[in-house]
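Margin note from the TA: students keep mixing up input and output lines. Inputs are the sequences; the output is the structure of the whole complex. Example:
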Amino acid sequence: MKEDRSSQAYWKATLSLLFKILILWFLVSFGAGILFADMLNSIHLGGYPLGFWFAQQGSIYIFIALIFYYAKKMGDIDRRFNVQEE
Amino acid sequence: MDLQTTIYVFVGLSFALYIGIAVWARAGSTSEFYAAGGSVHPITNGMATAADWMSAASFISMAGLISNMGYGGALFLMGWTGGYVLLAMLLAPYLRKFGKFTVPQFIGDRFYSKGASTIAVVCLLIASLTYIIGQMTGVGIAFARFLGVSSDTGIYVGMAIVFAYAVFGGMKGITYTQVAQYIVLILAFTVPAIFISLALTGNVLPQIGLGGDYRGTDMTLLAKLDSVVTDLGFGKYTTSVPGSTLNMFMYTLSLMIGTAGLPHVIMRFFTVPSVKDARLSAGWALVFIAILYTTAPAVGAMAKLNLHATVNTAVKAGGDLFAPEASIKADSQPDWMNRWEKTGLLKWTDKNGDGRIQYYNDKTKDKGVLDKAAAAGWKGNELMVNPDIIVLANPEIALLPNWVIGLVAAGGLAAALSTAAGLLMAISSAVSHDLVKSVFNPDISEQKELLAGKISMAVAIVVAGYLGLNPPGFAAGTVALAFGIAASSLFPAIMMGIFSKKMNKEGAMAGMLAGLFFTLFYVFAHKGIFFIKGTEYLDLIGGANSFFGITPEAIGAVGAAVNFLVAFLVDKVTAPPPAHIQAMVEAVRIPRGSKLVGGAH
């Protein structure tokens, strides 16, 4: 069967990527940094309690990784559906 | 060279550089003035966005608040970075594809209504003005200390300088000036942090140092800090939360959504050549922002430890913090304390008349601490330190060389001025383009349009300067209010404009108004109507933070939810948008066919 190349399918692929990234985004900041911070603080990363580290350091590094991952994956999706800029 | 001369040299040189760049890159057309002709590389744009973004609030105020709040200060760190993920994925590429250069233009076209774009202009003006008030507070503090003038005079000087180069440079000038400002401010922030991290922990990188061992002891820096502050009755550094976990959650969310809804940040993504670059630009911006944001927690924690160690010798030497000789004598206090006492932002009052400085939390509920303090003859906390001075005073607290202090002065001013200039661009384009040209006088010439923009900048500066003389809070807190306003009004409208083909003009307009009014009503109840002191109406809403204990700075997230809900309900009972609008949304969603941003309609 030929792959669906319609704009609906493109949008669906985009939304599913967004959804995945937003879950990670939520987990590292609101999850590890706030809601579960107390629990994670019993684990240590060097001199950092882990929950504190996620809140003040780790979440920021992961945010950067998420944006570059998104930019790369969106580029792939654009090409797959042949809608990239000329 | 003495300290004052060094500061003049550093500040003077950095200003000469910015003005030079602004003159060199003077804008010729409206498109260059507002969108830099759409010709800026993603890394350059990322750096400029970072400078634009990191304002007096980030540079001057944030690390001090983290120092004060401990763990809870993370709400600024996560809030002001996490929003970039939303911006990169939900808004930037689509707005770039849309190909106009202001936010109200997008809202007006997508919701096929002048009314919608006018409401967007109002939201934009309120958010941007609130933001500039925070900047002016920061500018005032920086000038007060470094030029040896009062903070009011500092604000007047700042107003004149911001106005000069925002007006003459335009967006292209601002973009390149901001690259220079980024370099100045990031050096100014990281250099002292590296020195201090080396001194306290032996680690070059402050990000590692914060998790390192406190030199000369067998404890980690954070464990040492935790034990010192809890012994003195302050909240435990690594776990203390502002208000409640719910409030911290909402505050963080509000800052994140606000980041993605602030017009002067969104405008940045119109200046890159393509949709692909718009996605990458947000990533690069965050890289440059993260250098400061991951250093700030180290600055905050280390400054706090240094401050305690300065006034209480038992912090470093070990032993009893409450021993009489541990608290230093006021007449042997270091010079930097004398210098800051002059600004009124650091105060010592000898409550027990022993000539020594006792610094502890006399409002603590920990009875053990109060008993020990009473036994030692302490009669209340004697030292008041305004958190907004921590970063500027940091190199002095750590006794770093004069040139570092000069560099920090230049950096603080760079941060405040670059952001104020970016905000003024957003205000001026909203008034001249989206209000004067599209609503009142469509036949206006390009020259007159530019003139209208410049006049609106001047008015905005005067209003913000006036309110900055009497700010509604610390710089970072005031700025947080601006984020709440943007979060509750603009972000939901833009997002629904892209992600819902069926959202119609009635829904969007009702949503924006509901979100804006809800948020303003709650904020003004606490801070006064349009931040004018004495007009608070807390009784009307049942006392401070009456909405589930949420502070006014954190209410934007709730406002955004109100916006979405009202828009959805109104949309259900009114007619769907016309077919050509739905087709336009389809077109915005795919990158192919993106064009340079043009000045014409």
